Amino acid sequence: MHINDILQNQRVTTSFEFSPPKTPEAAEVLFNNIRELEELHPSFVSVTYGAGGSTRQHTHDLVVRMKEEATLDPFPHLTCVSHTEEEIESILFRYAENGISNIHALAGDPPRSRPNYDRSQDHFRYATDLVRYIKRFNERGIHPDKRGFGIGVAGYPEGHYATPNRLKEIEYLKAKVDAGADYIVTQLFFDNHDFYDFRERCELAGIGVPIIAGIMPVTSRKGLERMAELALGSRYPAKLLRAIERCDEDDTYVRHVGVQWATEQCRDLLDNHVRGLHFYTLNRATATREIYTHLGVKDSRRLSA
Ligand SMILES: Cc1cc2nc3c(=O)[nH]c(=O)nc-3n(C[C@H](O)[C@H](O)[C@H](O)COP(=O)(O)OP(=O)(O)OC[C@H]3O[C@@H](n4cnc5c(N)ncnc54)[C@H](O)[C@@H]3O)c2cc1C
To answer: pTM of this prediction?
Structure first.
């Protein structure tokens, strides 16, 4: 369903993010987790695109399988890095043919294996360029929905690591929205004040599209380190770090602390009229399900009531 229809029908959207599995065994484990999360009836699910286009085929295959074998509405991510215009066009053609309604458009980061990667080779530099291109593709009337793809972009409540100038950063975000983005999904954050301040700064800048909050519970000490690597620039509040430090060695306790923290974040965001909650699942159902249980809901649709 086009994101604008979802947003019109639901006061609060819920979504789960997955990454394409690397092996057939991992694909089966992932699908078991997807089945568990399907019971929560999310508004949509999203599928990441590996750095430098490394999961191009796998992202496509997972998106198509989710659409065929589950009652889920998958939104693929698509990034600029390492792609020519022709490649992006052919990816869009395939998604249009498969009836995929929305695309999450990102700049992407160069693959870690190629630290000196030269971005001047890429046809699209910034996510804004990709949004503009998808908008032009939409106008060609290829997509079965005459509006074409709904388009999402990324936002960073605590700022993107590559742009220390926070005023410029909001200008760039506004440019992405003005180019045609329908909604923003944020990077993970642990202090809701950062989200509220970001939302207000967007409002001041005249960014009017819905902003969906990215939530990722800490589930282990190693996981925390990995998150810090993946979401560069994210802040880890001292209160959260102290709570983790107090835990016994067993990561089960870290997980309780992380899930409780994320639950409180969600509860507060819901009380403060968040437009959507986006859960970074790391392909596992348990933590998200636990957050739902602590919120007292079995079904996402209850959050929209
Ligand atoms: C919700 C979410 C999902 C993500 N999914 C993926 C994924 O599937 N695959 C993946 O590889 N990565 C993913 N990422 C990471 C993302 O690709 C990186 O953080 C990347 O560095 C920035 O992407 P962007 O789309 O925000 O880029 P842009 O909006 O293009 O911004 C990139 C940087 O350039 C700056 N900038 C923007 N426009 C201009 C301009 N005109 N002039 C100068 N500077 C400018 C921005 O401030 C920012 O610092 C995701 C991030 C989020 C928040």
So the answer is: 0.97
Ordered by start, the domain boundaries in the chain are 3-304
What is the pairing mode between strands 13-18 and 276-280? parallel
Ligand 1 atom closest to residue 173's alpha carbon, by position in its atom list: 29
pLDDT tens-digit series, residues 28-64: 999 999 999 999 999 999 999 987 777 888 999 999 9
CATH class of segment(s) 3-304: alpha beta
What is the rounded distance in angstroms from the CA atom of residue 276 to the CA atom of residue 266?
10
And the tokens for 269?
């965001």
The closest of 272, 305, 304, 299 to 37, measured between CA atoms, is: 299
Longest dimension (CA), the chain: 59
Q: Is 176 in the pocket of ligand 1 (CB under 6 A)?
A: yes
Which residue type sits at 33? N
Could you give the CA distance from residue 151 to residue 103 in angstroms, rounded to a whole number?
Answer: 5
Q: How far apart are CA 52 and CA 212, in angstroms?
A: 25
CA distance from start to end of the chain: 20
Tokens of 251: 């990561």
> Residue range 270-284: average pLDDT?
97
Q: Which residue has the tokens 């057939």?
A: 24
Token readout for 201 is: 């700064």
Of ligand 1's atoms, which has the minimum distance to the CA of residue 185?
Answer: 1
Ligand 1 lined by 234 (C-beta under 6 Å): no
Q: Residue with the nearest Cα to atom 37 of ligand 1? A: 172
With a 6 Å cutoff on the Cβ, whether 288 touches ligand 1 is no
